[in-house]
Amino acid sequence: MKNNYIFWHSITMKHFFSIGELKIFLELDVRGFEIFLDEALEAFAVVPFDVPDIRLQVDTTSSFPSVAAYKEIFTSNPEGLWTILEDKDKTSYLIALQNVARETEPYKVIKADRKFTDFIIYTRPNEEGILLPLEYPLADLAVSGHININKIGIILHSACITLGGMGYLFAGVSGSGKSTISEIWQKDDGAEVLTDERVIIRERDNDLWAFGTPWHGTSEIHKNIGAPIGKIFFIKHGRENRAVLISRTDAANRLMVRCFPTFWNRAGMEFALDFCSRVAGAKDCYELEFVNDTSVTKYIKNL
Hints:
Strand content: 35-45%
Largest sheet: 8 strands, mixed
Structural class: alpha+beta
CATH architecture of the largest domain: 3-Layer(aba) Sandwich
Order of helices and strands: EEEEEEEEEEEHEEHEEEEEHHEH
CATH class of the largest domain: Alpha Beta
Number of strands: 19
Distance between the termini: 33 Å
């Protein structure tokens, strides 16, 4: 994935974002080094607000919390970069970021409260004096954990478009064609692509809505827009355009496989399971084979 960046020279930085209508506040004090944030976040910047849903404070001077004092409850290693731990009294979590193949210690440690609302990010600038406070996978881990634990919604591996005021999801695992179908829809003047990779699903106005996120795929599409969900398609490449309506149970299972549940938090995991079932029961879900040309957009419109 291509990385673009926003650049600041500052001592105190405060930044305000809204992702999926979550208010997110980032604050850090820095001296003598540069700060980089993914440029995609700029599309989600908003005017200052008083009360955030998620507060992220960066600490570049204090010692890292001792991982040894916490109990590991889930890890994405060795393929991933993150491990979740909790203290013995179960009052807080730690997120340790580490490439175990190359590093003997975490390069970033994040302390979070039990609601995944308040975070302290313990980090240091890299060898070039550059600080990356929200580098992957921290921001999406914080948001996905927050919306599960607080029973708000889920993050789904899915492209999303709006068409006629409704949102249409094209969900899939890696390589299934999310970026491909997003690029096809970009050629359609009547549609707007919100994301080619990850979407937030949550309730709004007594309906289920989908929202774009800054965590884009290879097509680098990220828009801070939401829409009520019309239909959900589980996509794969094929020799023809063909959509088959699937059962609620099948759809719920496919949603779970493609979302980011809190495996490490039982209440959050139970909510994710229930929420996927509710989405599957409320919206028509299809398995969609599609060919790589604009005929698929005409097919979806006729459907």
